[in-house]
Amino acid sequence: MVVTPIQEHPACLYNQIALRFGAAAIAISAAAELLMYPAARNIQVSLNVDGLAIYVTMVRRYALPRLKNELQLDLAVIAYLLPVFFVQ
Questions:
Q1: What gap in Å lies between CA 55 and CA 61, rounded to an integer?
Q2: For 35-44, which contacts have Cβ atoms below 8 Å and span 24 or more sequence positions?
Q3: What is the mean pLDDT of the chain?
Q4: Residue 69 near residue 6 (C-beta atoms within 8 A)
Q5: 3-state SS class at 3
Q6: Can you list the residues of the chain whose pLDDT is less than 50?
Q7: pLDDT given at position 1
Q8: Residue 26: closest CA among 63, 61, 51
Q9: How many angstroms separate the CA atoms of 71 and 15, rounded?
Q10: Contact residues for 64 (Cβ-Cβ < 8 A; gap 6+)
């Protein structure tokens, strides 16, 4: 696989690290919510949050390695941050 210069850019490397730890934190928070507050409404919220963890992982694995320029990096960051803002 050919590594483009944008993939070595500090912002791209930071986003890969942030997405890796973000997916783990999202999954842990969803599990904690299920354990601490097992109401019917919270189960639905936890499943939505787990779906967000899967989405973040897919962005990290499939979208970030295919970036070619900084505009695509900006769009990828916006694409994975918008669902986070809506969930909050």
A1: 10
A2: none
A3: 82
A4: yes
A5: coil
A6: none
A7: 57
A8: 51
A9: 14
A10: 7, 12, 15, 16, 19, 76
